[in-house]
Specification:
Mean pLDDT: 88
Radius of gyration: 25 Å
Number of strands: 5
Shape: elongated
Distance between the termini: 45 Å
Helix content: 55-70%
Order of helices and strands: HHHHEEHEHHHHEEH
Largest sheet: 5 strands, mixed
Strand content: 5-15%
Low-confidence stretches: 15-19
Amino acid sequence: MMKKTLTLTLTSALLMGSFNLQAASLDNTQKQEVKDLVRKTLVENPDILVEAMNELRKKEVAVQQKSDQQILSAKSNDLFKNSDNPVIGNPKAKLTIAYFTDYNCQYCKRQDPILRKIAEDNPNVKFVIKETPILGPASTEATQYSLATFNQQKDKYTAIGHRLMSKPGKHSSSSIKAAFKAEGIDVNKLDINAAVAKQINDNLKLFQELGLRGTPAIVFPDEMLRGYTDESALKEMIKERT
């Protein structure tokens, strides 16, 4: 047991780059003995390497969580209290969650209906929609029209968002215009003004400041979820916070 513990310590140190086999306190023979001990024990007990990697991962997660909490605290108002952003769910809900999304993101197309269903079923939660066009010109075009609709025809925003997300595959300019036409919205009458540009720029800036790299991203007041999250996991997290 003691040998295993010693080897785990040595292995962890090697994995983290902090154990220096060139240390002056070891001669060449001793260095080789240490290498042989680690190699032999790992071959005979491969679970040690798994254990070491798990410990390393725990430390990485702890560091990431601490960093996340600091930035979430600093950006709380931008995330959860920006009146320029659309909201789905009960405006007076106890829990507010920010959601970064892109109409061309295939995982967002799976995530979106889950969030809408949760918002419909649970009056204690609302989602602040951070439209974040990171997947090319078509994403930007869809977002410009969508946010212009929110600013000028709020009653149609939810429906057009759902229709845009329901299209399999990526959008083109023609498919975007067809979606708006199907909802009775004339894109030629939408004003893609400075307010729309500011909303998009603010969302993209916040996205970068949070260290996010892709959509979907679901941001609780105390935790960030990077990537698609299934319904049961989301419900459990919401339950813990309401």
